[in-house]
Structures are given as structure tokens and as C-alpha cells.
Amino acid sequence: MDYGETPPAGEALADRSIAGAVVDALRGEIIHGQLKPGERLRQDAVATRFRVSQTVVREAFKDLIRECFLVSEPRRGVSVATMSADEAEEMTTLRSLIEPQALAWAIPRLTEVQFEAAERVLKELDDEKNVDRIILLNARFHRGLYAAANRPRTLTTVETLRLGFERYLRYTWEYTTHRDRSQQEHWELLAMCKQGEVDSACRLLTQHIRATGDLLVECLAKRPVEQPSKL
Questions:
Q1: Is the pLDDT of residue 149 over 50?
Q2: Strand partners of residue 73
Q3: Measured distance CA(57)–CA(50) in Å, rounded
Q4: Which residues is 23 bridged to in the sheet?
Q5: How far apart are CA 195 and CA 159, in angstroms?
Q6: Whole-prediction pTM value?
Q7: Stretch 197-225: mean pLDDT, rounded?
Q8: Torsional sign, CA 203, 206, 208, 210
Q9: What residue range is the signal peptide (predicted)?
Q10: Residue ranges of the chain assigned to CATH 1.20.120.530
């Protein structure tokens, strides 16, 4: 990526803290593969691109390192974190513990309006072919169910894990045929939630998360999807 180019007007950094907006922009580019795993980021080049100070970029880098999207190495500087089977397994394990608990809290609180909204999302997913839209709708479906839990700390953790897992999920749906199975499980999960079947829904959600994660770990272990830049 050429960091000397001027960002489009739509990337304006207004209405947010400048560092936070830089974080969001870079995170999005990592998730969507515009910034490649192992690609090095120069602080001065990023500052020039976003028309901000190097101090702002330094703070943005710190945030992204904490989120595990960037890594900092002695004498190499900052680069985009690579994808690994170990990290995929770690995030899958965490998600399979936290998300079913969020769902268990949510199910007794879910309303007919929320069920109808979830069904509309799944109907869109049935016909959607674009990977970006599929990922967006998938997140919207799960987020809509968990929101009823009304547990802010848990939901914040779920969202953090979702962001970290998104580029892995993108890889899974671009290079495997897992999507059809995943969508069938979405419909089954919604039906269980409507019936108030908390234990069954949580078991299915755990299996749903593990199936995606296990497939991804297997794919990554067999075929590394990238190598760090040697620049």
C-alpha cells in the first residue's frame, strides 16, 4: 500500500478523537486485507497519509498492538500481525466460553421485535454472496441476540473478540464451503431461542463457534496464508 497517497474524503477524521479514527481506519484495512500480514508500517508515512502528527500515530500503533492487530519488534519496527493457527485456537476457545454465556443471559429477555429483526437478517444472509456483506450480517445477527443480555462488560469482550476474529472468518468463508453449514445453524439457533431452549441453544452455539474455529485451525496448520515481510 502506498502511504503517500491522500485518503479519500470519506476517510476524513472528523467527529472522533484523531488517534481513535486512525486506529479504526488501520484496523479496517488489516481486517479487509488491504494491509497484508507482515507488512511494515512506518510511523512517518502513516502520519503523512492521514495528515496527523507522529505522536497521534504512535498512540494509534499502541492501541493496535494491544488489540493484537500490530506487532512491534526490535530493529524491525511495527508490522501487521500474521495469522496463526495458535491465535485462531485461542480466540475460538474464548468465544466458545463467553458467547454462550451471553446468549444464556439474553434468551429470557429476547422480545418478538428482536426475533423479527434476527429473522430479517438471516433472510438477507440466505441470498447474500458478497463476503463483506456476509460478515457484516453475521455479526449483526449474533450481536442482536446477545444485546438482550444487558451485560456491558461481557458484550464489550464479545465485540473485541469479534473484531480480532473477523479476518480469520473472512479467510474461512473465502476459501472453504463452511458458509452453508453455518447459515443452517443460524436458523436452528434462532428457533431454539424463540422456544426458550436455553441449554440447547447454548450447546448449539458452542458447536457453531468450535466448528468454524476448528476448520480454520486445520486450514492454517496445513497452509500458511502469509509470511512476514522480509523488508
A1: yes
A2: 77
A3: 9
A4: none
A5: 26
A6: 0.81
A7: 87
A8: negative
A9: none
A10: 85-222
Read off the pLDDT band of 231 (50, 70, 90): very low
When pLDDT is cut at 50, 70 and 90, the band that residue 221 belongs to is confident
Homologous superfamily of the 85-222 domain (CATH): GntR ligand-binding domain-like (1.20.120.530)
DSSP annotation of 58: H
CATH number of 9-80, picked from 3.40.50.720, 1.10.10.10, 3.40.50.880, 2.160.20.60? 1.10.10.10
Query: Measured between alpha carbons, how far is residue 23 from residues 7, 13, 30, 38, 161 in Å?
Result: 14, 11, 11, 18, 16
Q: Residues for the chain: how many in total?
A: 231
Query: Side chain identity at 200, as an amino acid letter?
Result: S
Tell me which residue has cell 479519500: 8
Per DSSP, helices labelled H in the chain are 18-31, 43-50, 54-66, 85-106, 112-127, 131-146, 152-175, 178-194, 198-222
Residue with cell 473472512: 170
